[in-house]
What we know:
Elements: H1 11-22, H2 25-37, H3 41-69, H4 73-80, H5 87-119, H6 122-125, H7 128-140, H8 143-161, H9 164-192, H10 197-204, H11 213-226, H12 233-239, H13 247-275, H14 286-301, H15 303-339, H16 344-364, E1 373-374, E2 377-378, H17 379-406, H18 409-416, H19 423-453
Antiparallel strand pairs: 1-2
Helix pairs in contact: 1-9, 1-12, 1-13, 1-15, 2-11, 2-13, 3-4, 3-11, 3-12, 3-13, 3-17, 3-18, 3-19, 4-5, 5-8, 5-15, 5-16, 5-17, 7-14, 8-15, 8-16, 9-13, 9-15, 10-13, 11-17, 11-19, 13-14, 14-15, 15-16, 17-19, 18-19
This protein binds phenylalanine.
Amino acid sequence: MKKERENFGSRAAVIMAMAGSAIGLGNIWRFPYMVGEYGGAAFIVVYIFASLLLALPIFFAESIIGRRSGANTFGAMETLAPRTRWKWLGLLTIVSPVIILSYYSVVGGWSVEYLFKALAFDFAAASDAEVTGFFGRFIASTWQPVVAHTVFLATVAGIVLAGVKKGIEKFTKATMPVLFVLIVLIAAYSLTLPGSRGGVDYLLRPDFSKLTPSVVAAAMGQAFFSLSLGVGTILTYASYMRKDENLLASGLGTAASDLFFAVLAGFAVVPAVFAAGLAPGAGPGLVFETLPYIFHKMGATLPWASAIIAIVFFLTILVAALTSAISMLEVGVAYLTEEKGMDRRAATWALTAFAWVVGVLCSLSFGPLSHVHLLGNPLFDFLDKLCSNWLLPLGGLLFTLFVGWKMPRADVYDEFTNGGTLRANLLLFPLVHFLIRYAAPVGIFVVFLTDLLL
Ligand code: PHE
């Protein structure tokens, strides 16, 4: 017996929740340092193409599967392709989001720590070198980041426990617009810093000689990570959508806001990186070294504005991270409650405990465990690469194959166009179906292969 399932209350709520999942540390933390690590504007160009041609079709594929089946990722496969090997896809996409959650929560913890620093007015008081050097000392320590990770993860669990409507929906609706305004303000300020010009060039002048297969693979991975694809998150959220909602509109709305956000974050961070004399390829710490620098500089002339913006900023980063993290946890919780008959509480805590343990190891991999390497990478980097470059694209590839080749075209048509009633969807259906059936799977496969072989 299936339980009554909750639904998102309105169209705005669905787009907000999906955008809440998509917009997160992927945009603000990961995107700028990937841009810095993989050569600037050329990476951004590939990222935009990958978002439109590969990621968006997966987004549609996941939404079609989710809403058609009205089930969690495993149940969706069982409903639409009963007793086939597709159930493994269902299972894969339950495991991968919990792995992401484990290291994501470590970075979420960093933002908790920085919020406290902002509240203590730390950024204004320190010297330039102290401000940019703090991050390195902080992550290399043992306890502080682990405590922060714990606080973050416990908050995520608490929200998920409150359920879809009361927890996730309310939370997201209230916070996304604030984040948007702030990131625009910070980008504008960052562009006024002396020395920021080099960063603008870095973001706008592509040097295509820097493009290698691994740059393309990283850009594709970033596009999938940023849109929460290939791990059943969008599928699960779509399963909470009402039948009269528009899959095209919610997909385009989410993708556009996500892309816009990433680029804005790039403009907030990269020019300031140049102004601060940091290296754009500094890695996962980039944002956490740069933003304090921005607030520090601002503090010299506008102490109050700087303090307030710093507090609100880290608070909103934290919220953006939370709305993404809850979407990772929700995938597994939906599975355990609907398929395994667990109650929501037990399911939430079981998955949280797993993510906590792995997250602690990830956190320590910046400090006491930094000498332990898996395939040449410390655990944190290993898991991040494993997920973004392999598991997400693999999940995405399989979702497009499922919708493109396994589901009857008539069903896909019916779901995408709401039974033939939506005009724009009817018009675009042939293109979308082509992208799902051919372009996306072939594209992902080629990127995979060249990255492996070259
Ligand atoms: N898209 C989220 C972000 O950008 C991360 C995420 C990945 C969320 C996969 C859910 C699933 O922060």
